Amino acid sequence: MSRIRKRHNRKTGRLRTKRLRRFRLAGSVRGRRTARRRAASFKPVPRSPANAGMAQRAFEAGREAALHPGDGGNAGPLKRMNRCWNEWGAANNASGLSWSAYHEIAGKFADGFQHESGVRLNNPVLVQTGKTIGAVITAMNEEKAIPGVLEQLGRLPLDETVVVVNGSADHTFWSARNLSGGIVVHYMRPLGHDVGRAIGAKLIRSDIVLFLDGDFPIFAEHLVPYIHAVERGADVVLNDITPYIDVFAGRDPVTIVKEMLNRSLGREDLRANSLTAVPHALSRKAIDTIGCASLMVPPKAQALAVRGGLRVETAMSVDVISKNRVRDKNSGRDNPVSHLIIGDHLEALELLMRTDGARLASADHIRNRNVLGRATS
Predict the structure, then answer these.
(1) Are 116 and 66 contacting, i.e. CB atoms less than 8 angstroms apart?
(2) Residue 291 lies in a domain
(3) How does pLDDT run along the chain (377 residues), one tens digit per residue?
């Protein structure tokens, strides 16, 4: 026996049809596909002599760095470790490694540093950047989920964290306050994710800013590509949800309008990827150029970023579709979340039409409009 339930993903705007069964068979086709997709994110690195040699050198370099950490000021052990990793990684071309190899080598460096210093951290994840890094998290009634979100962020060498708690009737505020170690903003009324992110962007001062939701954790390793993309010069880094969306014939109106906006911007390469989906990252330049207020309408902010000459690209693919919680407002094809997302994209398209004309960037090649003029003359 089974029944069909349709819901809208409030992060990606994609309509999902989910078949709910009274029992779940272990090793089902869908389960095997999900397992393969997640396992493909970071495949084990073959233990080649080169990898093994570099891993050993990284471990020894971590030990040496712990003995001579240099001037770290008042920075904590994770920040000092990451600064030392940056110096060694830059000298040994760590940024040119595959992600699997990168995390293995960086992990060995962290092991060596901890072994020699006697400091024990929670499985730290190192990043190849000297810029300051911050994170903005929006949360509403997520007291059970937000500890996991903050735990993963705590594995990264972040400089600041802003949690925007809004409209919560549970203990989300206290969970965030006790665990985040950063700024916690509390609003009694629900603001929505987009307004919450705009408020967080207004408060944060970091060079690289990650944006996440508080309803489920994302592995720290999966956030590193977003940080590295900004380090390499990107201004807006989107979650590449392409592997998780259906062919065009099976797409819902929200996914279609998202791809239409990107095509209207001349960015067909972005497909249906959008600032409406988390995680994403912004550079300080992007926040200052777009303006914090524009982030309240993510598609409009994306249009302003492209039109403003900012570098917009995708990073890693993080599955935020299957993890999305079912809520009254995002269930069914005709629901408030889909109306909001479509309306936001229409506002972005209206902005483009004011500058590019009614046809946007599309030329009219199939109509001979001079024929009508000759017939009436």
Answers:
(1) yes
(2) yes
(3) 444 444 555 555 555 544 433 333 334 444 445 444 544 455 544 555 567 899 999 999 999 999 988 776 678 999 999 999 999 999 999 989 999 999 999 999 999 999 999 999 999 999 999 999 999 999 999 999 999 999 999 999 999 999 999 999 999 999 999 998 899 999 999 999 999 999 999 999 999 999 999 999 999 999 999 999 999 999 999 999 999 998 888 888 999 999 999 999 999 999 999 999 999 999 999 999 999 999 999 999 999 999 999 999 999 999 988 877 666 555 556 788 889 999 999 999 999 999 888 888 677 777 777 776 555 55
**Residues contacting 139, CB < 8 A, separation 6+:** 146, 149, 163, 164, 165, 166, 168, 172, 176, 213, 214, 215
Are both 103 and 138 inside the same structural domain?
no
Does the residue 174 lie in any domain? yes
Residue 244 lies in a domain: yes
- Residues 12 and 320: beta-carbon distance below 8 Å: yes
Going by their DSSP bridges, the two strands 2-8 and 15-21 should be labelled as antiparallel
Full DSSP string of 150-195: HHHHHTS--SEEEEEEES-SSSHHHHHHHH--SEEEEESS---HHH
> How many domains is the chain partitioned into structurally?
2
Same domain? For 146 and 88 the reply is no
Backbone angles phi, psi at 170, to 5 degrees: -110, -150
> 137 and 230 share a domain?
yes
* Residue 231 falls inside a structural domain: yes
Q: Domain span at residue 79?
A: 49-117
Nearest of 207, 224, 240 to residue 94 by alpha carbon: 224
Cis peptide before 279 (omega within 30 of 0): yes
On the CB side of 196, CA atoms within 13 Å amount to: 28
